[in-house]
Amino acid sequence: MVGNDHTSRVWKGDSKNFKSRYPNTGAGFLIYCLRLMKREKREMKGFFQVQTPEQLLQKIERFKPISDERVSIEDSLHRVLAEEIISTIDLPEFPRSTVDGFALKAKDTYGASEKNPVLLKVIGEIPMGVVSDIVVKEGEAIKVATGGMIPKGADAVEMIEYTEWIDPQTLSVTKPISPMENVVQIGEDIRAGEVLLPKGHFIRPQDIGLMAGIGKKEVKVYLQPKVGVISSGDEIVPIEKDPSPGEIRDINRYTITSMVKENGGIPYFLGIARDRLEDLQEKIERGLRETDFVVITGGSSVGTMDLTMEVLRTFPKTEILGHGLSIRPGKPTLLADIGGKPFLGLPGHPVSAIVIFHFFGKPILRVLSGIPKEHACDEIKIRAKASRPIPSIGGRVDYVRVKLEEKDGTYWASPVFGKSGVISHLVRANGLLKIDIHEEGLEEGEEADVFLI
After folding, report:
1. What is the pLDDT of residues 88-108, one digit of tens each?
2. How many CB atoms lie within 10 A of CB 201?
3. Domains of the chain, with CATH numbers?
4. Which of 25-29, 297-301, 392-396 is modeled with the greatest confidence?
């Protein structure tokens, strides 16, 4: 130890500090050197440089959407647009009726009532899909169906409910209407040249209908991110195996891959990595080679962090973005950038893994999927009142599992307390109540944000 360069430097550079703390050399010197080495090792690795959730989320913005492809609009549901959708036509392309009834001149109905109906001459009917050259004159009406073309001369449609046949050619109208009532004009829905959907838009069924309406057959969308999922730990076994004492079925494989699917990614399970460097390295390397985003459960805690970090340092262009969050559950969260690909280390406890993936894995997936970065962290949340006092510790963000109930228009959140390894508590919950980093719990009746799960 005496001839070691590190200990010599410690002795020369910190001799005053050493002598004040350890007046007796020998064993004291050895302890002091070991403590300094341990401290430097931890600083070098970024060990538990605790960040706030907001600080870590800001670092997600560095990641970029993956490539794009063209697909038919039938296959575009829940994908993200990689182009603007601009209409090349007016919609509708002709004036059409929004009701079943009679096209007429609105002024012919003025003064109409049940006691004093207006009588009009019916000059025909325009079937659906037919273009008619009939011109409606004063005192005339023509029968049309919902979506049918409005003939020239007509400027409104009287609903069939307010009419009655007097004879085969005479119609009684009992309700006055205004010009353009029950009529959609040319371009009233969509104008040619209008941007209908922006780049980065998440495609819904109604969006597909809109594209169909303007004749858009194919659309450019971002590729769905491939996500490599690794479970880690000597104690983890496949679910088909009966666990021996000390072993645990692999819950995280199924929860995390399901969350990947739910949020538009394509999961690839890479297997269970044992607590050996070669095994962990092989699975992470495969994930980086074959997928766009690697997630490991159980590789970020204090006990396994050294091994995970040692493996990560073997890959070029690795940058540790964060290890340790001021959050509960999920403090030992690890985020790294490996050659532009995100690597997320989740805690091994199932509840912690689910919560952290919800708040960090999902935003990463959204960014890779093409969702604009300013919307990557959007969450569905409501305000609810605590049904009882909920304790917390200042200096960290607490996400408390709660069961929501509505009473007289107010949402109440009842905590479902339990340890992070007990997944049944999360099953009974339907929300995560947020207690902010500067708060020390909630009083009964106090309001807070609840994120729906």
Report:
1. 998 888 899 999 999 999 999
2. 20
3. 5-45 (no CATH), 53-65+224-375 (3.40.980.10), 68-91+188-222 (3.90.105.10), 96-184 (2.170.190.11), 381-452 (2.40.340.10)
4. 392-396
